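Hey, quick one: can you model this chain's 3D structure?
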Amino acid sequence: MWSRDVHPVVTDEDSLDDLLDELESHGDLTAAEQVVTIRMDERRYGKAMTIVEGFEGGVDVKSLASELKRTLGTGGTTDADGIELQGDHAEQVAKLLRERGFAVDE
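Sure thing. Here's the predicted structure for all 106 residues.
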C-alpha cells in the first residue's frame, strides 16, 4: 500500500488572517513605544479641557478619540497629533490609554 502525504490546504483567506494578526500585533507595539502627554487647559468661560498629545504614525487618532468620548460620555475633537476632550478627564483618560498599551506621561 502506498502512503499519501497529506498537506494542509492553504487558502488566500488563511494568509489574510495571518497578515491581519501580524498587523494587529505591530499596532500594539507601536502603541507601546509611544509616550503620550495628558494636560489640562481652560477654555472660554472657565471650561476645563483635557488634551492628549504625542501620537505618532500608526495610531488612528480619530477612532481612539471616538472611543474615549463614548466611554467617558463627553464631547471633543481631534487635531493634527492630539485629542481634545471637554471636561476634566485626565485620570480616566490615563487609565484608558494605559489599558490600550500606551505609555502615559502626565
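One thing worth noting: The chain has a mean pLDDT of 81.
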